[in-house]
DNA sequence: GTCTATACGAAGATAGAC
DNA sequence: GTCTATCTTCGTATAGAC
């Protein structure tokens, strides 16, 4: 009866390789884009060779989609936490400023999401996953708005879409023209619009 | 003294080839992205072979940058016209609705601009060109706002950046999740914020 | 399960014909 | 100036060793 311990550690080891490959892939896809990233670079970054990649994923597209699915799930989970932990509007804004000011302020995070969207726009079979992600983003803001404001002059969903659009748009401008727009211009705008300033 | 006419037509022919190649490149880069487009496809779409491409451009990057520069110039010129031809806010909004509702509603237009931005983010030497483009976009809205509103509670530039961000963000959502967000949600938002509705 | 070696195709770039 | 042919590099994917 050789080692129950060993079977477990083997399983963990496999999972670890997969995780490392996904982590590396996430970085490299963000840095170079889908088209320009090579599986060689991903394997190297993860500390393996291409063989390990093909042992875990069927193809480059398959790996990309695995990265995409994991990322979208994590993001939605993370967003839910922020909302639940911020009882007042003031709290939510303060939390937001720590991010800093915009969920998409992190360069790689922004690049990766942009890659996902481009991929979805060019691969119709993937489009529904991204559309669902955007819907959840709007739903997230809709909840946040409804929980803190009553008697809105317009539907909460409409405001939510505008807020999400602003968050995305300001992140875009701040990344491309950092000397002109700052990431926390998003919180500034929210405070201005809600009259909290 | 053989044919002044002929020299001219030769010059025009050269310019025409260049223009056709740029037009084709603009389409193909938008459809497939920088990484996945091949010079073969571009040449084919323009009705030439790769030889014609290399006769007119030094490399794939050189061609991409030529497309980028022409596009940015045209866009700025076009934007200026819309502003000058719309005396009232109502007129400007009506013009906008014809676009329809968002300057980036055209799929290829949106994809191409996104490619430009990604390229700029990954190629520091190109970044200033895109940053300048974003600045001009903000300047454009700043002028539009100043010309139609007095005694603003916040700097016109700040509002302009927010409006431009909204335009970009709504276009993004509308492209990725067309069943959830419509392109003219941008004009809706502007009308709501300006109290014109 | 991971690595090494390799097959295979694709695409950027160049050279020479016209 | 444009085309055809070719060189060369590179990257995906596979096969077989360990």
TrEMBL record, chains A, B:
Gene3D superfamilies: Tetracycline Repressor, domain 2. Residues 15-75 form the HTH tetR-type domain. GO terms for molecular function: DNA-binding transcription factor activity; transcription cis-regulatory region binding. Keywords: DNA-binding, Repressor, Transcription, Transcription regulation. The keyword Ribonucleoprotein does not apply. It comes from the Bacteria. Residues 38-57 bind DNA. PANTHER family: HTH-TYPE TRANSCRIPTIONAL REGULATOR RUTR (PTHR30055), TRANSCRIPTIONAL REGULATORY PROTEIN (PTHR30055:SF241). This is AcrR family transcriptional regulator.
